[in-house]
Design brief:
Helices cover about 50% and strands about 20% of the residues. By secondary structure, it is α/β, with parallel strands linked by helices. It has a single domain (about 5-225), classed as Rossmann fold, CATH 3.40.50. The strands form three sheets. It has a five-stranded parallel sheet with strand order 2-8-1-9-10. Strands 5-6-7 form a three-stranded antiparallel sheet, with helices on one face. Strands 3-4 form a two-stranded antiparallel sheet. Helix 4 packs parallel to helix 8. It binds 2'-deoxycytidine-5'-monophosphate (DC). 2'-deoxycytidine-5'-monophosphate binds near residues 14, 136 and 190.
């Protein structure tokens, strides 16, 4: 008998390893991994490159007018074991995680029309089930009926240090202080925005991974997953 294919929603704070975790789960289960933060980042990058963000100030109306010009798609990259994100056919995976994009993405993701467009795309991607989706509103708005919801968090300084190491390894010249500021301010913005703020769904399981390895998180996850399947 085929194993039941479910939707796994992973929400939580910035930089707490949601994507790494979601990607590992997808590889383990043979599911599709969808990084919804990458979609908000791709819209932000497009807005930055096309004049809708100047000196860090986002022109909401201009972003909304641009939305029809922005075609996002994911293509599986076997080397990474995950999908790369493309905007209008251009690979933007390497450009969306800079501090410049990180500093503007909360403002762009608080625009209602941006959210409606991306949420509709995400719902479409989940129609065939067997997906692990990570973001801020997956268990509350995109898939409130997801069978397994996880709310991830970790100490803010631990998160800043992890992100700092990644950016330095990628050749960015950033300071730990600016990364910490960004992590804390994004948490605040994501949790206080008017539309679909980050919050734990009532039925989500909390995973604080401040002191957990990826292996420990995976063991924690597999127990919960088996429980859901046996219901
Ligand atoms: O997961 P991330 O840090 O790459 O996400 C970037 C930003 O996108 C995050 O600060 C808030 C926004 N976001 C969102 O509003 N809703 C989602 N489902 C995913 C991300």
């Amino acid at each position: 008998m085929d194993t039941k294919r479910i939707i796994i929603a992973i929400d939580g704070h910035s930089s707490c390893g949601k994507s790494t975790f979601a990607k590992a789960i997808a590889a383990r289960l043979g599911y599709i991994f969808i990084d919804t933060g990458a979609m908000y980042r791709a819209v932000t990058l497009y807005a930055l490159e096309n004049g809708a963000i100047n000196s860090g100030i986002v022109d909401d109306d201009m972003v909304v007018r641009m939305l029809d010009e922005i075609n996002i798609d994911f293509r599986f990259n076997p080397q990474r074991g995950a999908s790369d994100i493309y905007v209008n056919g251009d690979l933007v995976e390497g450009k969306i995680r800079t501090i410049e994009v990180s500093n503007c993405v909360s403002a762009v993701s608080s625009i209602g029309a941006v959210r409606s467009k991306l949420v509709a795309m995400q719902q479409q991607m989940g129609l065939r089930r067997g997906v692990v989706m990570d973001g801020r509103d997956i268990g509350t708005v995109v898939f409130p009926e997801a069978e397994l919801k996880i709310y991830m968090t970790a100490d803010a300084m631990v998160r800043a240090q992890r992100r700092y190491k990644e950016l330095v390894a990628a050749g960015d010249s950033v300071t730990l202080e600016e990364i910490y500021e960004n992590v804390v301010s994004r948490d605040k913005a994501d949790m206080s925005r008017a539309i679909s703020p980050l919050r734990k769904a009532d039925d989500a399981l909390v995973l604080d991974n401040s002191n957990m390895s990826v292996e420990e998180q995976m063991a924690w996850f597999m127990e919960r997953y088996e429980e859901v399947l046996s219901k």
